[in-house]
Amino acid sequence: MTLLIGSITIGLILSLLAIGSFISFRIFKFPDLTTEGSITLGAAIAASLIMYNVHPLIATILAFVGGFLAGGITGLLHTKFKINGLLAGILVMTALYSVNLHVMGRSNVPLLSDITLITYFEQFADFITPNIESINILGWTASEKDIYVLLFILITIILISIIIYLFFKTNLGTAMRATGDNQQMIKALGVNTNLMITLGLAISNGLIALSGAFLAQYQGFADVQMGIGMVVWGLASVIIGEALLSKKSLGLLITGAIMGSILFRLLVAIALRWGMNPNDLKIITALFVFIALIMPGILNKFKRKEIC
Amino acid sequence: MLKITNIYKTFNPGTANQVKALQGVSCEVEEGSFVVIVGTNGSGKSSLLNAVAGTFIPDLGKIILDGMDITKFPEYKRAKYLGRVFQNPFTGTAPDMTIAENLTLASKRGQARGLGWAIPKSVLKEFQKRVKPLNMKLEDRLENPMGKLSGGQRQALTLLMASWQKPKLLLLDEHTAALDPKTANKVIQLTEEVVENDNLTTLMVTHSMQQAVNMGNRILMMHNGKIVYDFEGDDKKRLKVNDLLSLFDEIRRKEQIDVSTAEMLEKNYI
Protein backbone atom coordinates (compact mmCIF):
# COMPACT_ATOMS: atom_id res chain seq x y z
CA MET A 1 0.00 0.00 0.00
CA THR A 2 2.79 2.38 0.87
CA LEU A 3 4.29 1.55 -2.50
CA LEU A 4 1.02 2.30 -4.28
CA ILE A 5 0.50 5.62 -2.51
CA GLY A 6 4.15 6.53 -3.08
CA SER A 7 3.86 5.76 -6.80
CA ILE A 8 0.70 7.79 -7.20
CA THR A 9 2.27 10.71 -5.35
CA ILE A 10 5.39 10.68 -7.52
CA GLY A 11 3.19 10.22 -10.59
CA LEU A 12 1.26 13.32 -9.58
CA ILE A 13 4.44 15.30 -8.97
CA LEU A 14 5.80 14.24 -12.35
CA SER A 15 2.52 15.19 -14.01
CA LEU A 16 3.82 18.77 -13.93
CA LEU A 17 6.68 17.45 -16.05
CA ALA A 18 4.08 15.83 -18.31
CA ILE A 19 2.12 19.08 -18.64
CA GLY A 20 5.37 20.93 -19.38
CA SER A 21 6.24 18.37 -22.07
CA PHE A 22 2.71 18.64 -23.42
CA ILE A 23 3.14 22.40 -23.83
CA SER A 24 6.45 22.19 -25.67
CA PHE A 25 5.92 18.96 -27.66
CA ARG A 26 2.24 19.17 -28.45
CA ILE A 27 1.18 22.82 -28.32
CA PHE A 28 4.36 24.26 -29.84
CA LYS A 29 5.52 21.07 -31.63
CA PHE A 30 8.95 21.93 -30.28
CA PRO A 31 11.17 19.00 -29.21
CA ASP A 32 12.53 20.67 -26.10
CA LEU A 33 15.49 18.93 -24.44
CA THR A 34 15.94 21.70 -21.85
CA THR A 35 13.69 19.48 -19.69
CA GLU A 36 16.54 17.31 -18.45
CA GLY A 37 18.36 20.36 -17.12
CA SER A 38 15.37 22.30 -15.88
CA ILE A 39 13.85 19.54 -13.75
CA THR A 40 17.20 19.22 -11.97
CA LEU A 41 17.48 23.00 -11.77
CA GLY A 42 14.14 23.15 -9.98
CA ALA A 43 15.21 20.44 -7.55
CA ALA A 44 18.60 22.09 -7.00
CA ILE A 45 17.18 25.56 -6.35
CA ALA A 46 14.49 24.29 -4.00
CA ALA A 47 16.81 21.95 -2.08
CA SER A 48 19.64 24.45 -1.69
CA LEU A 49 17.38 27.28 -0.56
CA ILE A 50 15.57 25.02 1.90
CA MET A 51 18.94 23.93 3.25
CA TYR A 52 19.69 27.60 3.90
CA ASN A 53 16.41 27.83 5.83
CA VAL A 54 14.47 29.73 3.20
CA HIS A 55 10.75 29.12 3.53
CA PRO A 56 9.96 26.07 1.35
CA LEU A 57 7.11 27.87 -0.40
CA ILE A 58 9.44 30.67 -1.51
CA ALA A 59 12.08 28.12 -2.48
CA THR A 60 9.49 26.29 -4.62
CA ILE A 61 8.35 29.49 -6.32
CA LEU A 62 11.96 30.46 -7.05
CA ALA A 63 12.49 27.00 -8.57
CA PHE A 64 9.65 27.80 -10.98
CA VAL A 65 11.32 31.13 -11.82
CA GLY A 66 14.63 29.34 -12.47
CA GLY A 67 13.01 26.91 -14.90
CA PHE A 68 11.09 29.77 -16.51
CA LEU A 69 14.37 31.59 -17.23
CA ALA A 70 16.06 28.43 -18.54
CA GLY A 71 13.18 27.79 -20.94
CA GLY A 72 13.24 31.44 -21.96
CA ILE A 73 16.93 31.14 -22.87
CA THR A 74 16.22 28.10 -25.04
CA GLY A 75 13.46 30.10 -26.70
CA LEU A 76 15.76 33.06 -27.34
CA LEU A 77 18.51 30.83 -28.76
CA HIS A 78 15.96 29.36 -31.12
CA THR A 79 14.07 32.49 -32.17
CA LYS A 80 16.62 35.32 -31.95
CA PHE A 81 19.72 33.41 -32.98
CA LYS A 82 17.94 30.97 -35.31
CA ILE A 83 19.53 27.91 -33.70
CA ASN A 84 17.79 24.63 -34.45
CA GLY A 85 15.31 23.81 -31.68
CA LEU A 86 16.89 20.51 -30.67
CA LEU A 87 20.32 22.08 -30.53
CA ALA A 88 19.10 25.08 -28.54
CA GLY A 89 17.69 22.68 -25.94
CA ILE A 90 20.89 20.65 -25.84
CA LEU A 91 23.00 23.78 -25.34
CA VAL A 92 20.90 25.00 -22.42
CA MET A 93 20.65 21.50 -20.93
CA THR A 94 24.43 21.11 -21.04
CA ALA A 95 25.01 24.55 -19.55
CA LEU A 96 22.48 23.82 -16.81
CA TYR A 97 24.54 20.83 -15.66
CA SER A 98 27.25 23.23 -14.48
CA VAL A 99 24.69 25.69 -13.16
CA ASN A 100 23.05 22.94 -11.11
CA LEU A 101 26.38 21.88 -9.61
CA HIS A 102 27.06 25.50 -8.65
CA VAL A 103 23.60 25.95 -7.17
CA MET A 104 23.97 22.85 -5.01
CA GLY A 105 27.69 23.23 -4.38
CA ARG A 106 28.06 19.45 -4.78
CA SER A 107 26.37 16.68 -6.70
CA ASN A 108 23.80 15.75 -4.05
CA VAL A 109 21.86 17.74 -1.44
CA PRO A 110 19.99 15.72 1.22
CA LEU A 111 16.95 17.32 2.90
CA LEU A 112 16.25 14.78 5.59
CA SER A 113 16.04 17.07 8.61
CA ASP A 114 15.00 20.27 6.86
CA ILE A 115 11.53 21.74 6.79
CA THR A 116 9.95 21.25 3.37
CA LEU A 117 6.41 21.67 2.03
CA ILE A 118 5.99 17.96 2.71
CA THR A 119 6.83 18.59 6.38
CA TYR A 120 4.04 21.19 6.48
CA PHE A 121 1.60 18.75 4.95
CA GLU A 122 2.52 16.14 7.55
CA GLN A 123 2.23 18.64 10.39
CA PHE A 124 -1.18 19.58 9.08
CA ALA A 125 -2.16 15.92 9.21
CA ASP A 126 -1.12 15.73 12.86
CA PHE A 127 -3.02 18.90 13.57
CA ILE A 128 -6.31 17.70 12.07
CA THR A 129 -6.24 14.14 13.29
CA PRO A 130 -3.68 13.97 16.08
CA ASN A 131 -4.60 10.48 17.28
CA ILE A 132 -4.68 8.57 14.04
CA GLU A 133 -1.42 7.15 12.72
CA SER A 134 -2.70 4.81 10.06
CA ILE A 135 -5.83 4.39 7.99
CA ASN A 136 -7.40 1.17 6.85
CA ILE A 137 -8.32 1.16 3.17
CA LEU A 138 -9.99 -1.98 1.86
CA GLY A 139 -8.09 -4.11 4.29
CA TRP A 140 -4.73 -2.45 3.64
CA THR A 141 -3.20 -0.22 6.21
CA ALA A 142 -1.71 3.00 4.99
CA SER A 143 0.20 5.66 6.82
CA GLU A 144 -2.11 8.58 7.51
CA LYS A 145 0.66 11.05 6.77
CA ASP A 146 1.29 9.55 3.35
CA ILE A 147 -2.36 9.95 2.48
CA TYR A 148 -2.41 13.58 3.55
CA VAL A 149 0.71 14.27 1.50
CA LEU A 150 -0.96 12.60 -1.48
CA LEU A 151 -4.10 14.68 -1.01
CA PHE A 152 -2.18 17.93 -0.74
CA ILE A 153 -0.12 17.17 -3.81
CA LEU A 154 -3.31 16.21 -5.66
CA ILE A 155 -4.96 19.52 -4.75
CA THR A 156 -1.83 21.45 -5.76
CA ILE A 157 -1.62 19.69 -9.13
CA ILE A 158 -5.32 20.21 -9.81
CA LEU A 159 -5.02 23.91 -9.00
CA ILE A 160 -1.95 24.34 -11.20
CA SER A 161 -3.52 22.49 -14.11
CA ILE A 162 -6.71 24.54 -13.85
CA ILE A 163 -4.58 27.70 -14.01
CA ILE A 164 -2.76 26.32 -17.06
CA TYR A 165 -6.04 25.36 -18.69
CA LEU A 166 -7.55 28.78 -18.09
CA PHE A 167 -4.37 30.46 -19.32
CA PHE A 168 -4.54 28.66 -22.66
CA LYS A 169 -8.14 29.82 -23.05
CA THR A 170 -7.21 33.50 -22.75
CA ASN A 171 -6.37 35.71 -25.73
CA LEU A 172 -2.66 35.30 -25.06
CA GLY A 173 -2.95 31.54 -24.56
CA THR A 174 -5.03 31.17 -27.72
CA ALA A 175 -2.41 33.10 -29.69
CA MET A 176 0.21 30.70 -28.28
CA ARG A 177 -1.73 27.64 -29.36
CA ALA A 178 -2.19 29.15 -32.80
CA THR A 179 1.58 29.75 -33.00
CA GLY A 180 2.13 26.01 -32.63
CA ASP A 181 -0.68 25.20 -35.03
CA ASN A 182 -0.05 27.59 -37.93
CA GLN A 183 2.76 30.09 -37.57
CA GLN A 184 2.21 31.82 -40.92
CA MET A 185 -1.44 32.46 -40.15
CA ILE A 186 -0.91 33.90 -36.72
CA LYS A 187 1.94 36.14 -37.94
CA ALA A 188 -0.46 37.53 -40.53
CA LEU A 189 -2.83 38.27 -37.66
CA GLY A 190 -0.22 40.38 -35.94
CA VAL A 191 1.23 38.05 -33.32
CA ASN A 192 4.96 38.08 -32.55
CA THR A 193 5.54 34.35 -32.86
CA ASN A 194 9.10 34.55 -31.54
CA LEU A 195 7.80 36.02 -28.31
CA MET A 196 5.07 33.37 -28.10
CA ILE A 197 7.55 30.50 -28.55
CA THR A 198 9.94 31.97 -25.99
CA LEU A 199 7.18 32.57 -23.46
CA GLY A 200 5.71 29.12 -24.07
CA LEU A 201 9.03 27.35 -23.52
CA ALA A 202 9.56 29.46 -20.40
CA ILE A 203 6.19 28.40 -18.96
CA SER A 204 6.82 24.78 -19.94
CA ASN A 205 10.21 24.68 -18.23
CA GLY A 206 8.90 26.61 -15.25
CA LEU A 207 6.38 23.82 -14.68
CA ILE A 208 9.07 21.19 -15.19
CA ALA A 209 11.30 22.90 -12.62
CA LEU A 210 8.33 23.05 -10.26
CA SER A 211 7.98 19.32 -10.71
CA GLY A 212 11.67 18.95 -9.80
CA ALA A 213 11.20 21.13 -6.72
CA PHE A 214 8.33 19.01 -5.43
CA LEU A 215 10.21 15.83 -6.27
CA ALA A 216 13.27 16.89 -4.29
CA GLN A 217 11.14 17.76 -1.29
CA TYR A 218 9.19 14.53 -1.47
CA GLN A 219 12.18 12.27 -1.99
CA GLY A 220 14.27 14.23 0.49
CA PHE A 221 17.17 15.00 -1.82
CA ALA A 222 18.24 16.69 -5.03
CA ASP A 223 20.76 15.02 -7.28
CA VAL A 224 22.55 16.41 -10.30
CA GLN A 225 21.77 13.23 -12.26
CA MET A 226 18.03 13.18 -11.59
CA GLY A 227 17.10 14.77 -14.93
CA ILE A 228 18.46 11.99 -17.10
CA GLY A 229 15.74 10.43 -19.24
CA MET A 230 13.10 12.93 -18.19
CA VAL A 231 12.34 14.10 -21.75
CA VAL A 232 11.29 10.61 -22.71
CA TRP A 233 9.51 10.16 -19.40
CA GLY A 234 7.43 13.29 -19.99
CA LEU A 235 6.70 12.30 -23.56
CA ALA A 236 5.64 8.80 -22.47
CA SER A 237 3.16 10.31 -20.01
CA VAL A 238 1.71 12.60 -22.70
CA ILE A 239 1.35 9.69 -25.14
CA ILE A 240 -0.34 7.44 -22.57
CA GLY A 241 -2.67 10.30 -21.71
CA GLU A 242 -3.63 10.75 -25.34
CA ALA A 243 -4.28 7.02 -25.68
CA LEU A 244 -6.43 7.06 -22.54
CA LEU A 245 -8.64 9.98 -23.48
CA SER A 246 -8.21 10.09 -27.28
CA LYS A 247 -7.09 13.62 -27.99
CA LYS A 248 -9.86 16.11 -28.25
CA SER A 249 -10.17 19.28 -26.25
CA LEU A 250 -7.45 21.08 -24.35
CA GLY A 251 -8.97 20.19 -20.99
CA LEU A 252 -9.01 16.49 -21.83
CA LEU A 253 -5.43 16.64 -23.08
CA ILE A 254 -4.16 18.20 -19.85
CA THR A 255 -6.17 15.74 -17.76
CA GLY A 256 -4.78 12.97 -19.95
CA ALA A 257 -1.20 14.10 -19.33
CA ILE A 258 -1.80 13.93 -15.55
CA MET A 259 -3.44 10.50 -15.76
CA GLY A 260 -0.73 9.30 -18.13
CA SER A 261 1.96 10.36 -15.70
CA ILE A 262 0.34 8.51 -12.78
CA LEU A 263 -0.34 5.39 -14.84
CA PHE A 264 3.18 5.34 -16.21
CA ARG A 265 4.66 5.66 -12.74
CA LEU A 266 2.44 2.81 -11.53
CA LEU A 267 3.49 0.61 -14.45
CA VAL A 268 7.12 1.29 -13.65
CA ALA A 269 6.58 0.52 -9.96
CA ILE A 270 4.87 -2.75 -10.81
CA ALA A 271 7.60 -3.72 -13.25
CA LEU A 272 10.26 -3.00 -10.64
CA ARG A 273 8.29 -4.96 -8.04
CA TRP A 274 8.17 -7.95 -10.37
CA GLY A 275 11.92 -7.94 -10.47
CA MET A 276 12.82 -5.78 -13.44
CA ASN A 277 16.40 -4.63 -13.23
CA PRO A 278 16.28 -0.86 -12.42
CA ASN A 279 19.17 -0.41 -14.85
CA ASP A 280 16.84 -1.44 -17.69
CA LEU A 281 14.28 1.22 -16.82
CA LYS A 282 15.48 3.82 -19.34
CA ILE A 283 15.78 1.44 -22.27
CA ILE A 284 12.31 0.07 -21.63
CA THR A 285 10.92 3.60 -21.37
CA ALA A 286 12.61 4.49 -24.65
CA LEU A 287 11.26 1.34 -26.33
CA PHE A 288 7.82 2.13 -25.04
CA VAL A 289 7.88 5.64 -26.51
CA PHE A 290 9.30 4.28 -29.77
CA ILE A 291 6.42 1.82 -30.10
CA ALA A 292 3.88 4.48 -29.14
CA LEU A 293 5.30 6.79 -31.82
CA ILE A 294 5.19 4.26 -34.67
CA MET A 295 1.88 2.65 -33.68
CA PRO A 296 -0.44 5.14 -35.44
CA GLY A 297 1.42 4.61 -38.74
CA ILE A 298 1.25 0.82 -38.48
CA LEU A 299 -2.43 0.88 -37.56
CA ASN A 300 -3.14 3.08 -40.57
CA LYS A 301 -1.36 0.62 -42.84
CA PHE A 302 -3.52 -2.21 -41.54
CA LYS A 303 -6.63 -0.16 -42.05
CA ARG A 304 -5.65 0.61 -45.62
CA LYS A 305 -5.06 -3.08 -46.32
CA GLU A 306 -8.48 -3.94 -44.94
CA ILE A 307 -10.08 -1.43 -47.29
CA CYS A 308 -8.27 -2.93 -50.28
CA MET B 1 -2.29 55.30 -49.59
CA LEU B 2 0.35 52.77 -50.60
CA LYS B 3 3.54 54.04 -52.18
CA ILE B 4 6.16 51.57 -53.36
CA THR B 5 9.40 53.19 -54.48
CA ASN B 6 12.00 51.38 -56.49
CA ILE B 7 12.19 48.11 -54.57
CA TYR B 8 14.69 45.40 -55.40
CA LYS B 9 14.96 41.89 -54.06
CA THR B 10 17.30 39.06 -55.02
CA PHE B 11 16.87 35.68 -53.37
CA ASN B 12 19.92 33.49 -52.68
CA PRO B 13 22.34 36.09 -54.09
CA GLY B 14 25.63 34.74 -55.36
CA THR B 15 24.46 31.12 -55.54
CA ALA B 16 23.28 28.88 -58.37
CA ASN B 17 19.72 29.44 -57.16
CA GLN B 18 19.92 33.21 -57.44
CA VAL B 19 16.54 34.70 -58.36
CA LYS B 20 16.12 38.37 -59.15
CA ALA B 21 12.52 38.56 -57.98
CA LEU B 22 12.01 42.31 -57.96
CA GLN B 23 14.04 44.73 -60.04
CA GLY B 24 13.01 48.26 -59.34
CA VAL B 25 9.27 48.16 -58.82
CA SER B 26 7.55 51.47 -58.18
CA CYS B 27 3.84 52.17 -57.98
CA GLU B 28 1.34 54.19 -56.09
CA VAL B 29 -2.07 52.87 -55.05
CA GLU B 30 -4.87 55.26 -54.18
CA GLU B 31 -7.24 54.79 -51.30
CA GLY B 32 -10.21 52.61 -52.22
CA SER B 33 -8.76 51.28 -55.43
CA PHE B 34 -8.73 47.59 -56.33
CA VAL B 35 -5.55 46.66 -58.16
CA VAL B 36 -5.21 43.34 -59.96
CA ILE B 37 -1.66 42.12 -60.56
CA VAL B 38 -1.04 39.67 -63.41
CA GLY B 39 2.12 38.24 -64.92
CA THR B 40 3.87 35.10 -66.05
CA ASN B 41 5.29 32.55 -63.61
CA GLY B 42 8.28 34.03 -61.87
CA SER B 43 7.41 37.56 -62.95
CA GLY B 44 7.58 38.75 -59.35
CA LYS B 45 3.88 39.38 -58.74
CA SER B 46 3.71 37.26 -55.59
CA SER B 47 7.05 38.68 -54.49
CA LEU B 48 5.63 42.18 -54.77
CA LEU B 49 2.73 41.21 -52.54
CA ASN B 50 5.05 39.48 -50.08
CA ALA B 51 7.29 42.56 -49.95
CA VAL B 52 4.27 44.60 -48.90
CA ALA B 53 3.18 41.91 -46.43
CA GLY B 54 6.66 41.75 -44.92
CA THR B 55 7.47 38.11 -45.65
CA PHE B 56 10.90 39.48 -46.57
CA ILE B 57 12.62 42.86 -46.31
CA PRO B 58 13.57 44.29 -49.74
CA ASP B 59 17.26 44.84 -50.54
CA LEU B 60 16.57 48.38 -51.72
CA GLY B 61 13.64 50.75 -51.92
CA LYS B 62 10.84 51.98 -49.75
CA ILE B 63 7.29 50.96 -48.90
CA ILE B 64 5.10 53.68 -47.44
CA LEU B 65 1.62 52.78 -46.19
CA ASP B 66 -0.67 55.63 -45.23
CA GLY B 67 2.30 57.90 -44.54
CA MET B 68 4.15 55.28 -42.49
CA ASP B 69 7.45 53.87 -43.65
CA ILE B 70 6.83 50.14 -43.13
CA THR B 71 9.82 48.94 -45.18
CA LYS B 72 11.63 47.48 -42.16
CA PHE B 73 8.61 46.47 -40.08
CA PRO B 74 8.59 42.76 -39.17
CA GLU B 75 5.69 40.77 -40.59
CA TYR B 76 3.67 40.61 -37.37
CA LYS B 77 3.92 44.37 -36.82
CA ARG B 78 2.52 45.41 -40.17
CA ALA B 79 -0.21 42.80 -39.88
CA LYS B 80 -2.01 45.47 -37.88
CA TYR B 81 -2.72 47.29 -41.14
CA LEU B 82 -3.01 44.37 -43.56
CA GLY B 83 -5.57 41.69 -44.23
CA ARG B 84 -4.14 38.69 -46.06
CA VAL B 85 -5.51 35.68 -47.92
CA PHE B 86 -3.06 33.10 -49.21
CA GLN B 87 -2.93 30.85 -52.24
CA ASN B 88 -3.01 27.72 -50.09
CA PRO B 89 -6.42 27.57 -48.37
CA PHE B 90 -4.78 25.87 -45.39
CA THR B 91 -2.32 28.70 -44.72
CA GLY B 92 -4.86 31.19 -43.47
CA THR B 93 -6.45 29.18 -40.67
CA ALA B 94 -5.31 27.07 -37.71
CA PRO B 95 -6.56 23.48 -38.28
CA ASP B 96 -6.47 22.15 -34.72
CA MET B 97 -8.42 25.06 -33.31
CA THR B 98 -12.15 25.64 -33.52
CA ILE B 99 -13.78 28.02 -36.00
CA ALA B 100 -14.70 30.31 -33.12
CA GLU B 101 -11.09 30.36 -31.88
CA ASN B 102 -9.85 31.21 -35.36
CA LEU B 103 -12.37 34.02 -35.61
CA THR B 104 -11.45 35.40 -32.21
CA LEU B 105 -7.77 35.41 -33.21
CA ALA B 106 -8.68 37.39 -36.33
CA SER B 107 -10.91 39.80 -34.44
CA LYS B 108 -7.87 40.81 -32.36
CA ARG B 109 -5.56 41.37 -35.34
CA GLY B 110 -2.86 43.85 -34.45
CA GLN B 111 -4.10 44.35 -30.89
CA ALA B 112 -2.27 43.44 -27.71
CA ARG B 113 -3.39 40.03 -26.50
CA GLY B 114 -3.74 39.91 -22.76
CA LEU B 115 -5.26 37.58 -20.22
CA GLY B 116 -8.84 38.32 -21.13
CA TRP B 117 -11.09 35.37 -21.85
CA ALA B 118 -10.59 34.53 -25.55
CA ILE B 119 -14.21 33.68 -26.39
CA PRO B 120 -16.68 35.30 -24.02
CA LYS B 121 -20.29 34.18 -24.55
CA SER B 122 -21.21 37.63 -25.84
CA VAL B 123 -19.11 37.42 -29.01
CA LEU B 124 -20.55 34.09 -30.18
CA LYS B 125 -23.73 35.82 -31.35
CA GLU B 126 -21.67 38.28 -33.38
CA PHE B 127 -19.58 35.44 -34.83
CA GLN B 128 -22.74 33.66 -35.96
CA LYS B 129 -24.13 36.85 -37.45
CA ARG B 130 -21.01 37.47 -39.51
CA VAL B 131 -20.46 33.86 -40.59
CA LYS B 132 -24.06 33.37 -41.70
CA PRO B 133 -23.83 35.43 -44.94
CA LEU B 134 -21.24 32.93 -46.22
CA ASN B 135 -24.18 30.54 -46.70
CA MET B 136 -22.05 27.58 -45.75
CA LYS B 137 -24.04 26.59 -42.66
CA LEU B 138 -20.94 27.22 -40.58
CA GLU B 139 -22.77 29.38 -38.05
CA ASP B 140 -23.94 26.27 -36.17
CA ARG B 141 -20.53 24.64 -36.27
CA LEU B 142 -18.41 27.27 -34.56
CA GLU B 143 -17.13 24.74 -32.05
CA ASN B 144 -15.88 22.38 -34.79
CA PRO B 145 -12.17 22.21 -35.53
CA MET B 146 -11.14 24.19 -38.61
CA GLY B 147 -9.27 21.18 -40.00
CA LYS B 148 -12.56 19.38 -40.69
CA LEU B 149 -13.68 21.99 -43.25
CA SER B 150 -13.08 21.92 -47.00
CA GLY B 151 -10.52 24.14 -48.71
CA GLY B 152 -13.25 26.40 -50.06
CA GLN B 153 -14.86 26.84 -46.67
CA ARG B 154 -11.52 27.59 -45.09
CA GLN B 155 -10.66 30.10 -47.80
CA ALA B 156 -14.02 31.83 -47.36
CA LEU B 157 -13.40 32.04 -43.62
CA THR B 158 -9.86 33.33 -44.21
CA LEU B 159 -11.32 36.11 -46.33
CA LEU B 160 -13.81 36.91 -43.61
CA MET B 161 -11.01 36.87 -41.01
CA ALA B 162 -8.75 39.09 -43.11
CA SER B 163 -11.46 41.74 -43.30
CA TRP B 164 -12.86 41.26 -39.79
CA GLN B 165 -10.99 44.29 -38.51
CA LYS B 166 -11.12 46.64 -41.47
CA PRO B 167 -7.56 46.56 -42.83
CA LYS B 168 -5.93 49.55 -44.51
CA LEU B 169 -4.94 47.21 -47.29
CA LEU B 170 -6.24 43.80 -48.33
CA LEU B 171 -3.69 41.46 -49.95
CA LEU B 172 -5.03 38.52 -51.97
CA ASP B 173 -2.33 36.16 -53.25
CA GLU B 174 -3.91 33.96 -55.96
CA HIS B 175 -6.46 33.06 -53.36
CA THR B 176 -8.65 31.02 -55.72
CA ALA B 177 -5.88 29.18 -57.59
CA ALA B 178 -6.11 26.04 -55.45
CA LEU B 179 -9.90 25.78 -55.51
CA ASP B 180 -12.22 23.98 -57.91
CA PRO B 181 -13.97 26.32 -60.42
CA LYS B 182 -17.29 26.39 -58.60
CA THR B 183 -15.76 27.14 -55.20
CA ALA B 184 -13.41 29.64 -56.82
CA ASN B 185 -16.42 31.51 -58.21
CA LYS B 186 -18.03 31.60 -54.83
CA VAL B 187 -14.88 32.95 -53.19
CA ILE B 188 -14.53 35.57 -55.93
CA GLN B 189 -18.12 36.66 -55.41
CA LEU B 190 -17.45 36.89 -51.70
CA THR B 191 -14.29 38.88 -52.35
CA GLU B 192 -16.23 41.43 -54.36
CA GLU B 193 -18.83 41.76 -51.61
CA VAL B 194 -16.25 42.19 -48.87
CA VAL B 195 -14.22 44.73 -50.82
CA GLU B 196 -17.31 46.70 -51.82
CA ASN B 197 -18.97 46.71 -48.41
CA ASP B 198 -15.94 48.03 -46.58
CA ASN B 199 -14.55 49.97 -49.54
CA LEU B 200 -11.21 48.24 -49.01
CA THR B 201 -8.04 49.17 -50.81
CA THR B 202 -7.02 45.87 -52.38
CA LEU B 203 -4.07 44.26 -54.13
CA MET B 204 -4.96 40.97 -55.80
CA VAL B 205 -2.56 38.66 -57.60
CA THR B 206 -4.22 36.27 -60.02
CA HIS B 207 -3.48 33.79 -62.78
CA SER B 208 -6.98 34.09 -64.18
CA MET B 209 -7.27 36.64 -66.99
CA GLN B 210 -11.04 36.48 -66.60
CA GLN B 211 -10.78 37.62 -62.98
CA ALA B 212 -8.32 40.33 -63.97
CA VAL B 213 -10.71 41.70 -66.58
CA ASN B 214 -13.86 41.42 -64.46
CA MET B 215 -12.54 42.70 -61.18
CA GLY B 216 -10.93 45.83 -59.86
CA ASN B 217 -10.27 49.21 -61.42
CA ARG B 218 -6.62 48.84 -62.31
CA ILE B 219 -4.36 46.16 -63.79
CA LEU B 220 -0.62 45.89 -63.29
CA MET B 221 1.18 43.46 -65.55
CA MET B 222 4.55 42.26 -64.33
CA HIS B 223 7.43 40.64 -66.12
CA ASN B 224 10.95 39.81 -64.97
CA GLY B 225 10.54 41.63 -61.69
CA LYS B 226 9.24 44.83 -63.22
CA ILE B 227 5.86 46.39 -63.87
CA VAL B 228 5.56 46.45 -67.67
CA TYR B 229 1.97 47.65 -68.16
CA ASP B 230 -0.38 49.67 -65.99
CA PHE B 231 -4.02 50.14 -67.05
CA GLU B 232 -6.39 52.39 -65.15
CA GLY B 233 -9.83 53.88 -65.51
CA ASP B 234 -11.37 53.60 -68.97
CA ASP B 235 -8.34 51.77 -70.36
CA LYS B 236 -8.89 49.07 -67.75
CA LYS B 237 -12.63 48.92 -68.49
CA ARG B 238 -12.03 48.43 -72.22
CA LEU B 239 -9.49 45.66 -71.66
CA LYS B 240 -10.61 42.16 -72.69
CA VAL B 241 -9.14 38.76 -71.95
CA ASN B 242 -7.79 38.57 -75.51
CA ASP B 243 -6.04 41.91 -75.15
CA LEU B 244 -4.25 40.66 -72.06
CA LEU B 245 -3.28 37.41 -73.78
CA SER B 246 -1.89 39.25 -76.80
CA LEU B 247 0.11 41.48 -74.46
CA PHE B 248 1.64 38.36 -72.93
CA ASP B 249 2.46 37.14 -76.45
CA GLU B 250 4.03 40.47 -77.24
CA ILE B 251 6.23 40.29 -74.14
CA ARG B 252 7.31 36.78 -75.06
CA ARG B 253 8.13 37.81 -78.63
CA LYS B 254 10.14 40.78 -77.43
CA GLU B 255 12.09 38.43 -75.25
CA GLN B 256 12.76 36.09 -78.15
CA ILE B 257 13.94 39.05 -80.19
CA ASP B 258 16.32 39.88 -77.42
CA VAL B 259 17.70 36.36 -77.42
CA SER B 260 17.89 36.07 -81.19
CA THR B 261 19.47 39.49 -81.60
CA ALA B 262 21.99 38.53 -78.99
CA GLU B 263 22.78 35.40 -80.99
CA MET B 264 23.04 37.40 -84.19
CA LEU B 265 25.33 39.93 -82.57
CA GLU B 266 27.36 37.09 -81.12
CA LYS B 267 27.84 35.55 -84.59
CA ASN B 268 28.80 38.83 -86.16
CA TYR B 269 31.11 40.26 -83.55
CA ILE B 270 32.62 37.45 -81.50
Order of helices and strands of chain B: EEEHEEHEHHHEHEHEEHH
Helicity level of chain A, as a percent range? Answer: over 70%
Averaged pLDDT of chain A, please? 91
Largest sheet of chain B: 6 strands, mixed
Task: Tell me the CATH topology of the largest domain in chain A.
Answer: ABC transporter involved in vitamin B12 uptake, BtuC
Number of helical elements of chain B: 9
Strand arrangement across the biggest beta sheet of chain A: 1-4
Give the amount of beta strand of chain B, in percent: 15-25%
Order of helices and strands of chain A: HHHHEHEEHHHHEHHH
Overall outline of chain A: globular
Question: Topology of this structure?
Answer:
The complex is a heterodimer of chains A (308) and B (270).
Chain A: H1 2-27, H2 35-51, H3 56-79, H4 85-104, E1 108-110, H5 117-128, E2 134-137, E3 140-143, H6 144-167, H7 171-181, H8 183-188, H9 193-219, E4 221-223, H10 230-245, H11 250-273, H12 281-307
Antiparallel strand pairs in A: 1-4, 2-3
Helix pairs in contact in A: 1-6, 1-9, 1-10, 1-11, 2-3, 2-4, 2-9, 3-4, 3-9, 5-6, 7-9, 10-11, 10-12
Chain B: E1 2-11, E2 19-29, E3 34-39, H1 45-53, E4 60-65, E5 68-69, H2 75-78, E6 82-85, H3 99-107, H4 121-131, H5 151-162, E7 169-173, H6 181-198, E8 202-205, H7 209-214, E9 218-223, E10 226-232, H8 233-238, H9 241-269
Parallel strand pairs in B: 3-8, 3-9, 6-7, 7-8
Antiparallel strand pairs in B: 1-2, 1-4, 4-5, 9-10
Can you tell me about this structure?
The complex is a heterodimer of chains A (308) and B (270). Chain A has helices at 2-27, 35-51, 56-79, 85-104, 117-128, 144-167, 171-181, 183-188, 193-219, 230-245, 250-273, 281-307, and strands at residues 108-110, 134-137, 140-143, 221-223. By secondary structure, chain A is mostly helical. Chain A folds into two domains: 2-276, ABC transporter involved in vitamin B12 uptake, BtuC; 280-308. In chain A, the strands form two sheets. Chain A has a two-stranded antiparallel sheet. A two-stranded antiparallel ribbon of chain A has the order 2-3. The radius of gyration of chain A is 20 Å and the shape is globular. The mean pLDDT of chain A is 91. Chain B is α/β, with parallel strands linked by helices and 270 residues long. Chain B has a single domain, classed as P-loop containing nucleotide triphosphate hydrolases (Rossmann fold, 3-Layer(aba) Sandwich). Chain B has nine helices and ten strands. Chain B has helices spanning 45-53, 75-78, 99-107, 121-131, 151-162, 181-198, 209-214, 233-238, 241-269; strands at residues 2-11, 19-29, 34-39, 60-65, 68-69, 82-85, 169-173, 202-205, 218-223, 226-232. Chain A binds chain B through residues 167, 169-175, 177-178, 181-182, 184-193, and chain B through 53, 74-77, 79-80, 82, 84, 86, 90-97, 101-102, 104-106, 108-111, 113-119, 161-162.
